[in-house]
Amino acid sequence: MGAEMLAMNPRVVKFGTASWEGVTSISVDRGADKVVAEVSDLGPHVVFVDVPEQRVTARVTADLLTDDLGPPRPGDSGALVFFTSPAGTDGGRKKVSMTAVVTAVRHPGGPRGLARVIDLIAVSSDGVADPVTIADAGGEL
Amino acid sequence: MMSKRGQLVVSSFALGGGDAGSVWLGLVETDITVRGRLQATTEAALWVLRDAVLEELIDPPAAGTLVDLNGRSWSTMSFVSYVEGDRTDRGRVRSVAYTAIFRKFNTPP
After folding, report:
1. What is the pTM of this model?
2. Testing the interface with A: which of B2, B33, B67, B93 to mutate, by most A Cβ within 10 A?
């Protein structure tokens, strides 16, 4: 099951075979790509709403610690995996994973220097399955 | 939604006339367009609804009274076309938008 979430300072973030360092936050958001809203002939109000097309996006923000001219690049696809826990300890650690495609890589300046912001769109295996998987991490690293 | 009403007017030239005027040919037939959405909880149930609609498209078309949700009725209307939206919407439920057209033929079937 997936959910909107914000992970602060996740200790491990992997994308495909790469480990992303210095990640300060990961947000996972859900939005409607298509909203069906119908009114009736009887009055002004909407009587039916559905969301037949939705999108799960992730944004990874990292401090840029050194020069980095390498990937990721828009179009890159891989498994985005990160671990999070409510108290920053091993208790209640969760493993969040999703297959995702990079859609943007930006480097805005900030109070702590240059950051790297990576936007991704999560991909479902079949269009029905939720693209985000959350599982107990146990001792997995 | 009711279609444009009035005379069918064509140019005299189109009918072989030699002037720039036009000719009326009579009142155009009335179309009533109904736009809606079929909804069902399953794919199969949605097809049941579709099939029920399609069964009403017959040849020759039958005339009947079309009644809207606000109590207005139109007599001797024939169901002439059914067009679906670009795709079935699969969200919380299965649904598909449609446009159905009913025509009042000048010469009823």
Report:
1. 0.80
2. B93
Q: Contact, A77 vs A126, CB < 8 A?
A: no
Q: pLDDT tens digits for B4-41?
A: 899 999 999 988 988 999 999 999 999 999 999 999 99
Q: Which residue type, as a one-letter code, is found at position B33?
A: T
Nearest-CA distance from B35 to chain A in Å? 10
Residue B59 domain boundaries: 30-104
**CA distances, A77 to each of A133, B46, B106 (Å):** 17, 36, 61
Chain B interface, mutation test: which of A36, A39, A124, A126, most B Cβ atoms within 10 Å?
A: A36
Q: What is the second-level CATH architecture of the domain A5-35+45-136?
A: Roll (2.30)
Q: Is B91 a domain residue? A: yes
The pLDDT tens digits of the residues spanning B46-61 come to: 999 999 999 999 999 9
